[in-house]
Write a structure and sequence with these properties.
The complex is a heterodimer of chains A (79) and B (423).
Chain A lengths: L1 E5 L2 E5 L5 H7 L6 E2 L5 E2 L12 E4 L2 E5 L10 E3 L3
Parallel strand pairs in A: 1-7
Antiparallel strand pairs in A: 1-2, 3-4, 5-6, 5-7
Chain B lengths: L2 E10 L3 H12 L4 E4 L19 H12 L3 E3 L2 E7 L3 E6 L2 E12 L3 E3 L12 E2 L1 H9 L8 E7 L3 H10 L3 E7 L3 H9 L5 H13 L4 E4 L1 E7 L6 E6 L2 E6 L2 E6 L1 E3 L2 H5 L4 E2 L2 E2 L12 E3 L9 H15 L3 H5 L2 H17 L15 E3 L4 E2 H4 L5 H8 L11 H9 L15 H8 L6
Parallel strand pairs in B: 1-2, 1-6, 2-3, 6-19, 8-15, 9-10, 9-15, 10-11
Antiparallel strand pairs in B: 4-5, 5-6, 7-16, 12-13, 13-14, 17-18, 20-21
The chains are: A mainly beta (79), B alpha/beta (423).
């Protein structure tokens, strides 16, 4: 297990998991807000729909389903 | 200045077709570069964590690793020019790839049809749920409804049930008769029937209904219940997760960008997987969704063809034709019913990237017109989700593909704007 920070909270996540899976396991349903402000979460989970975009280590619009967790990573949702 | 790679063959997509094509070409002495968006080879069907490649995949992945194929992981090809010059977007910069032959093995994606509530969190694709589970998400204890169509429903229901999900209902929109006819045609492939029986046992506590489909998903912060219909009866099913998807559609953006001819939604190829553009081959799902078997056969043919082994490639012609026939059978048996095109209301979002509703699209007459007047298809997914839905709802063919085919960094955009600097 490794530690990452999700919206300011430290959580322990399984190594090798994607950021999307880590967020899901942490109980996050709203990954981002749509252009009109509606809550959105992953749909395709394979890099196509871009619905799971979050800010990872300060870089916005990363597709969380394509990025694996790394120790010390900082994830922010609702960007 | 972009990082530059040179290869005899550039294979785009590291699913079964791409792995087979790359491996076979490299085994015949060619310098091969295998490019994929994911962190490791396998594609969606063989998606796995670093430590656990699935049993059936291991043989091919081991062979790939021994073959000397160079790999470019976490990279999305966003442009292709004659010659061939490819440009890939990768974390930390753009990569330009120069190759004499290109094999497109870009796979398929799920067909999503819009219905009220389909944008709520925890409404996932069927393949999407499986991908999420395979990448470490826990579904343990979650109440799951699976409603959609196609052969993927069963393995996903089984997978989720085995990992502790409380799968309550599997709803296949195709009528029982269609599914039975399809199953009867599987007598040549008894293993598929054995698999199906095994899957059904894994989710035996769930109801399994044919001719049933979801008409609405409801909830506040996420989906809380779904409304389904079957034979004129409508009922509500509480759930934590809804998995929905109506089969797969070929991913053809890169092929269309390269100018390859498209036929009935798939990339047109000859018996050697050659597209209408000399030097660009295409294998697996982009040529028509057929699953693992045909993907491996077509990938092998493409690898042999790239290596100039046409005769050996032709020997696989029988297996190739059988695969194509099976693909047509799947398409026919699980074709989405007409009722599914009437689920969205005027207020239902169709383009999820730009939040364009069905009502806003009503005055348009083509995908191009809709794009110009509503921005539908102009968001980050570039019409990959709403495009196939619009084709189904209105019969609109997708608009022309433009470079870059997916969002890129400014640096990559710079490399596209001044390609001579890459050489």
């Amino acid at each position: 297990m490794i530690a990452i920070t999700i919206d300011g909270e430290r959580v322990s996540v399984e190594e090798g998991a994607t950021v999307a899976a880590a967020l899901w396991n942490a109980g996050v349903a709203r990954f981002r807000s749509s252009v009109s402000g509606a809550p959105r979460g992953p749909l395709c989970a394979m890099g196509i729909c871009h619905e799971c975009r979050v800010t990872i280590d300060g870089v916005p619009h990363r597709r969380s389903c394509l990025v694996e967790v790394a120790a010390g990573m900082t994830v922010e949702t609702r960007g | 200045m972009a990082d530059a790679r040179v290869a005899d063959v550039a294979v785009v997509g590291a699913g079964p077709a791409g792995i087979a094509a790359a491996t076979v070409a490299a085994e015949h002495g060619l310098r091969v570069l295998l490019i994929d968006e994911g962190p490791r080879p396998g594609g969606q069907i063989w998606r796995h964590r670093a430590d656990a490649p699935p049993e059936r995949a291991r043989r091919w992945i081991d062979r790939l690793q021994r073959s000397g194929v160079a790999r470019l992981s976490g990279a999305a090809v966003v442009a292709i020019e004659p010659g061939f010059q490819l440009l890939a977007e990768r974390e930390g910069g753009a990569v330009s790839i120069s190759a004499k032959t290109v094999v497109l093995a870009t796979g398929a994606r799920e067909l999503f049809l819009p219905f009220p509530g389909w944008t709520l969190p925890n409404v996932l694709g069927v393949g999407g749920a499986q991908a999420l589970a395979k990448s470490g998400a826990s579904f343990s204890g979650k109440r799951v409804v699976i409603a959609g169509s196609g052969p993927l429903l069963l393995p996903v229901a089984a997978h989720l049930a085995r990992s502790g999900a409380r799968v309550s209902l599997v709803a296949e929109q195709a009528p029982l008769g269609s599914v039975l006819r399809f199953a009867a045609g599987l007598w040549r492939a008894p293993a598929a029937l054995v698999d199906a029986a095994r899957y059904r046992r894994a989710f035996r506590r769930a109801r399994y209904r044919f001719g049933a489909w979801v008409v609405e998903a409801r909830g506040e912060a996420r989906v809380e219940e779904v409304i389904l219909t079957r034979a004129g009866r409508t009922w509500t099913e509480p759930c934590d997760v809804l998995c929905t998807g109506y089969g797969l559609v070929p991913a053809t953006e890169l092929a269309r960008l390269a100018g390859c001819r498209i036929d009935a939604g798939g990339v047109a190829v000859d018996a050697l997987q050659q597209t209408s553009v000399e030097g660009i081959l295409c294998a697996g799902e982009p040529t028509g969704v057929g699953g693992l078997g045909p993907a491996l056969v077509e990938g092998t043919i493409a690898g042999l063809a790239a290596a100039g082994r046409a005769q050996e490639a032709h020997r696989l012609g029988g297996a190739r034709r059988r695969g194509r026939k099976e693909a047509l059978r799947i398409e026919r048996a699980f074709r989405p019913r007409e009722e599914l095109s009437r689920l969205a209301r005027r207020s239902t979002v169709v383009c999820r990237c730009e939040d364009v509703t069905l009502g806003q699209l009503e005055s348009s007459r083509s995908a191009r017109e809709a794009k110009l007047s509503t921005r539908a298809g102009m968001g980050p997914c570039q019409g990959r989700v709403c495009g196939p839905a619009l084709r189904y709802l209105f019969g609109w063919e997708s608009d022309t593909v433009r470079v870059p085919i997916s969002p890129v960094s400014l640096e990559t955009l710079g490399a596209i704007a001044s390609p001579e600097e890459n050489r």
